[in-house]
Specification:
Layout lengths: L1 H13 L4 E5 L1 H10 L5 H7 L2 H4 L3 E7 L4 H7 L14 H17 L5 E4 L8 H7 L4 E2 L5 E2 L9 E7 L25 H5 L5 E3 L2 E2 L5 H7 L20 H4 L46 H15 L5 H8 L2 H5 L1 H17 L6
Antiparallel strand pairs: 1-2, 2-6, 3-6, 4-5, 7-8
Helix pairs in contact: 2-3, 11-14, 12-14
Length: 340
């Protein structure tokens, strides 16, 4: 058991995993008893017959903070900070596949889960295990990694891995630095942090630009030039000030979808990095770009948006095209002639 656990942890680390937590069924049941109602179904599923014969749960986290993101993070004006670090979930996804294969090659059963298909509520679990503490922005902070250990995957297995030696606690654990600090609350562009540790996802720019199909029009102007994510609450957080970025690993190279289907306005400086998103986010990305153009676009962008608005995709996104056009025209009309 010890040798298997040691080899497994070493292998996971070699695949880009920075933090591994191994849970026994006893720990999972303890967590389930303490879980708020909102998480009960997650634990019921984790303890269901489908997983009864693969009782060990492994959580693995990837550190998503590199030198490129650190540079972009500090250029909040004039550039739409994108989720350039978000593709670290691809490293996490690949790692869970590789570690699953590692165990299967040794005759054990495995059910892997990626970041977007996890069963356990990872922030709650990490907090009750003392691995991470909540900031007032409702993000989990891990010692040495700040809030940037944010790409987690899980796998269920019957491999006799030794559980991580940590105790389950019923106490909520908040970050000590937060006691006298509310910088994240006062700086949030959309006032999404309603109160300490309580965030309205329907106002959170990161959630809106990543995962929702619709964005309330009243929030358009507040989204500034944030095309893919926002992360202001992490960028200005004192608890992250001493977290050192690492050199961007080759496996985290940004995916380039090319320019097919993207408006010519993608060449504008502020959405430059956002063009490097993976293709499956294309429509969502276009909405976000058009909102950002409406907020920060210049007169030179008008013809590009007008051209795009006449395409089938532009017709589908008429509300967003109209916003971009009206806002840019309004600014253009008030520009001093010398600036035209």
């Amino acid at each position: 058991m010890q040798d298997l656990t040691r080899d497994f942890l070493a292998y996971a680390e070699s695949k880009g995993i920075q933090k591994t937590v191994i849970l026994s069924q006893i720990q999972v049941h303890q967590l389930a008893k303490l879980a708020p109602e909102a998480y009960r179904k997650n634990f019921e599923q984790a303890c269901s017959d489908d997983y009864r014969d693969i009782p060990v749960i492994v959580l693995m986290g990837v550190f998503g903070y590199d030198d490129l993101f650190a540079t972009v993070r500090n250029q909040r004006e004039g550039i739409g900070l994108t989720g350039s670090h978000q593709n670290y979930w691809r490293i996490a996804e690949e790692a869970v596949k590789n570690t699953s294969q590692f165990l299967e090659d040794r005759g054990f059963r495995v059910k892997p889960h990626g970041e977007f298909t996890m069963i356990l509520p990872v922030k709650y679990v990490l907090n009750r295990l003392g691995v991470g503490k909540y900031g007032k922005n409702s993000i989990i902070y891990v010692d040495g990694y700040g809030s940037y250990l944010n790409n987690w995957v899980e796998l269920f297995t019957n491999a006799p891995l030794e559980p991580t030696d940590i105790q389950v606690t019923e106490d909520f654990q908040g970050l000590a630095q937060c006691v006298k600090c509310e910088t994240c609350i006062s700086t949030c562009p959309t006032s999404a942090i309603l109160e300490p540790y309580k965030v309205d996802q329907n106002k959170c720019i990161t959630h809106l630009t990543h995962r929702t199909d619709t964005i309330p029009k009243e929030l358009f102007s507040k989204m500034r030039n944030w095309i893919w994510g926002c992360n202001i609450c992490q960028s200005i957080c004192p608890a992250n000030a001493r977290v050192a970025p690492r050199k961007r690993p080759v496996d985290a190279a940004i995916s380039h979808p090319g320019t097919t289907g993207l408006p010519p306005a993608h060449t504008h400086p502020f959405p430059r990095l956002a063009t490097e998103l993976v293709p499956e986010y294309n429509t969502k990305y276009l909405k976000n770009v058009l909102i950002a153009l409406g907020n920060c676009g210049v007169s030179d962008d008008l013809r590009y948006v007008e051209m795009f608005s006449r395409t089938p995709k532009g017709g589908e996104l008429k509300e967003f095209c109209d916003y971009a056009l009206s806002q840019i025209k309004s600014r253009h009309e008030t520009e001093p002639k010398r600036n035209r």
